[in-house]
């Protein structure tokens, strides 16, 4: 397909193939959808300065379009034009039928070209919001893939792309559109060129619906979503499937809003059903990925001051003890607080220089936190490069009984880590030599000295940027327990744990930073990702894309998002072997048997001719 995505820049590295795609706009965030489309395409979403773009990558291609014959070339009697009545007084134009898109795909997926061993972009779609999209959220993969009688209400969502987008106009938009890519005929409709309003998201041009979630007075700093089977109304006893969206912003000391949206009918706008004031602005929020209804309502709120809290929006309490008071908004319950370790200036000599006498006081700053181990543990990334796991349910090797659920903890706290490690990416190593004594920053303002002050000298006081991406690793056996791949980004360092369960088991007995790089057997160690180049742009986010089972290399493909481009790291080879590779293998085997392993030009031509003769003979027989 033509477009800016057709021919990326390709670079071969020891860890795999790097593909760099140039984008025509400023991008802020990206997500990989956990479900494949009907034709087997992988779906990637990214938010940019005007909305959201959806990319369908790989899979079976569209069938060639059949060009319709003009009316004057149709056979006699084939015209469907009706008789025009001159006596009709009705001047109304007949209503135009809505376009019914029915894309058709090839029967088999096209084999990859050995010179460009990566799937191409099949289709792309722009959803125009008219404002920046800063953050995206999708339903947990475990919820989208859940099966059984209790999950039948979510079956319509398995044929849709459902995501929440936090926008610069203070709204959070919940978008629902078909998972199948639109056909080329759908994008070539003439009305799209004559009516520009059809490009706006929510017009239904692509079968999409948009629900506006209001309540914020500042742009949202993060969004998360999950599914819930709650009552349709407060007085109703009928339970309907709903989507619960949570968002946080920096209003006042921090604000957390939650909305309920029914799955059966997406309304135009929804007001929040819970509004929670935070003690400090949140860094990130994430709903529990477990399909257990006991844990699905748990929201992880990570605060930059060094605290992670777990909020249960279904365990309701009233802020006022007076039961007679009505009209009080419902509030959930804070179940548990998790505290990061304290700062240590010995590991960061420059902290004293920039933080003064208060350096070393207080807890480490949290960069990001995510649920792991099917929502039974939490992994956190700190600003000094340390990462750690809180095993709140006792799922780790030799772990004691968990804290939540079994012991009924409510309002408790925990600070001890179950596993720690370092990715060594927060501080840029200084050049060896004599330690430099910091000098005074005061420079007298004279014509000869006013330019002597270097505004770019020293270390930046800005917060370290980073993120954690947790992805479920596809297993070849449906009965086996799903593994998880954890990707870290901190500053300019990217590190991956291909299999968290194996890594945890191998390092459970180690203490004090046992998770250093390159230790442990294969498959149970961290790997630093090298040669990530965004051509001078800063990283805006990371994401993992699930691969087919039994593929070599990393457990997932890695997406690194810049400001006007993104990079895909494809490692290893796919599990299925193409017929081209099989033919080359059979050819080499035949040559080894006949010529003792020496391959010449005549031998290749003879073997190819034999293969063609056998293929033609087979066609004549059948």
Please name the defining characteristics of this protein.
5-stranded antiparallel β-sheet; 622 residues; mainly beta; 4 domains; 32% strand; disordered C terminus; 31 strands; 10% helix; 5-stranded mixed β-sheet; Nucleoporin NUP37
Written account of the structure:
Residues 103-112 have a biased composition (Acidic residues). This is Nucleoporin NUP37. Residues 66-118, 430-463 are annotated as: Disordered. InterPro entries: WD40/YVTN_repeat-like_dom_sf, WD40_repeat_dom_sf. It comes from Marssonina brunnea f. sp. multigermtubi (strain MB_m1) (Marssonina leaf spot fungus). The chain is mainly beta and 622 residues long. The chain has four domains: 18-62 and 101-244 and 251-274, no CATH class; 279-422, no CATH class; 466-568, no CATH class; 581-621, no CATH class. Helix content is 10%, strand content 32%. The protein is built from seven helices and 31 strands. It has helices spanning 141-144, 184-187, 191-194, 350-355, 500-507, 579-595, 601-621; strands spanning 9-13, 16-22, 27-32, 42-48, 51-57, 121-128, 133-138, 160-167, 172-178, 209-213, 222-231, 239-249, 255-262, 269-270, 274-277, 282-287, 298-303, 307-317, 331-339, 366-372, 377-382, 386-390, 412-414, 419-422, 466-473, 483-490, 493-497, 527-528, 541-546, 556-561, 565-570. The strands form seven sheets. Strands 1-2-31-30-29 form a five-stranded antiparallel β-sheet, with no helix packed on it. The longest helix has 21 residues, at 601-621. The C terminus is likely disordered.
Give the SSE layout.
Layout: E1 9-13, E2 16-22, E3 27-32, E4 42-48, E5 51-57, E6 121-128, E7 133-138, H1 141-144, E8 160-167, E9 172-178, H2 184-187, H3 191-194, E10 209-213, E11 222-231, E12 239-249, E13 255-262, E14 269-270, E15 274-277, E16 282-287, E17 298-303, E18 307-317, E19 331-339, H4 350-355, E20 366-372, E21 377-382, E22 386-390, E23 412-414, E24 419-422, E25 466-473, E26 483-490, E27 493-497, H5 500-507, E28 527-528, E29 541-546, E30 556-561, E31 565-570, H6 579-595, H7 601-621
Parallel strand pairs: 10-14, 19-23
Antiparallel strand pairs: 1-2, 2-31, 3-4, 4-5, 5-6, 7-8, 8-9, 9-10, 11-12, 12-13, 13-15, 16-17, 17-18, 18-19, 20-21, 21-22, 22-24, 25-26, 26-27, 27-28, 29-30, 30-31
